[in-house]
Design goal:
Elements (H helix, E strand, L loop, with lengths): L1 E6 L13 E8 L2 E9 L4 E6 L8 E8 L12 E7 L24 E2 L4 E6 L12 E4 L23 H10 L17 E8 L4 E2 L6 E5 L7 E6 L4 E5 L10 E5 L6 E5 L21 H22 L28 H8 L3 E6 L2 E6 L14 E2 L2 E2 L4 H4 L9
Amino acid sequence: MLWLKLYTTNTEGELSSFSKVGYIELLNDSIPEIQVRLDLTDGTGNGWMELPVTLPTGYYRLVAYTRYMQNEGEDIFFEKKISVVNPYQPQETRIQPGTENHSFKLPNRVTPNHIITVSADKASYQARNKGVIRIQELPSDSISLSVAGTDPIQTTTPSIQEWKESLFSKDPISFSTKIIPEYEGPIYEGQLIDRSNNQPATEYGIVGLLSFPGENIQIFNGKTDKNGHITFYTGLTHGKKEMATVVLNTSEKSYRIDLQSPFAQHRSKTYQPIYLDSTWHQYLLQRSMGVQVMQVYTGDSINRIESAPPHTFSKPYKSYILDEYTRFPFIEEILTEFIPIARVSKKDGKRTFSVLTEKMDKFSTQTLVLFDNIPITDQEQIYSYNPLLLKK
């Protein structure tokens, strides 16, 4: 597990709630090995990357940004060089003499008003030794402090403060407003394609839907321009989920939606390979065992993600648990026998489904049918489904 904590700030260093989504990638050169997206609340978000067992030992680029930052280009993305050792793969070894230095690196934080000084009572410590850290000139606002152990495989990377200072030293970048910020939730873009010729669809009135299969209703309309480019403005959906896209149209044509990756393109940047010292064998073995123990004891709780709330103001006013009724072999029989507010009609040889509105005064003329939260455009598919596989 690669644990992540993401902060978004303005140029004054204050937390910013402008973007609700952050993007983090682990890159090998310019190729993403892992891509994750974090929900942001009041400028902060946290999560993790799960490194695959096939990931080779080496140096990698950890890159983080928001969608809106893509307007200025990759030069302003946060980037950190990290080392990954995969104990499940054969390693190259290199013997090197010398002892390791475990002394403190004490950064100073410079603010417009004063300098914050950090000092320790010793230059180095043995395992389980008590240590004292002194911080002078504490600011009146909040401050965070972290103490981390030193790994044998050192990676030289700027601190966050040094990275921020480097941004102001860069040449001015032409700012584009083509990419809008995600101030409500993830934005997905794609192309509406006419299946008959595999060309962008330009017909007016075609509606695209995007949904997230799951317990709660998460379904969003897409906005289409004259060139067939479609955009979905969604809400926060929490965790890893499948997506489904459906095209609603009244014509006989068939369409599909090709979604684009929301992640940025990256320039090439290569690192030298890692050569492991054989004297690190015991250290790496202990770390490997610790990782395996953690996965055994925390795997279930880590993957238990809180489901996102329904993205609709409507609530179901009738539900039918089918095991509480006599089971019938056909869907149409269930609708006829048990659900008095439902009506099945046939048009052009195809059956359609309508329901009595909540006020009980009329039947719906256009009914949205969801199967596991996936929109069904051809309702005849529902009637041919095995009702014994339905729960509710």
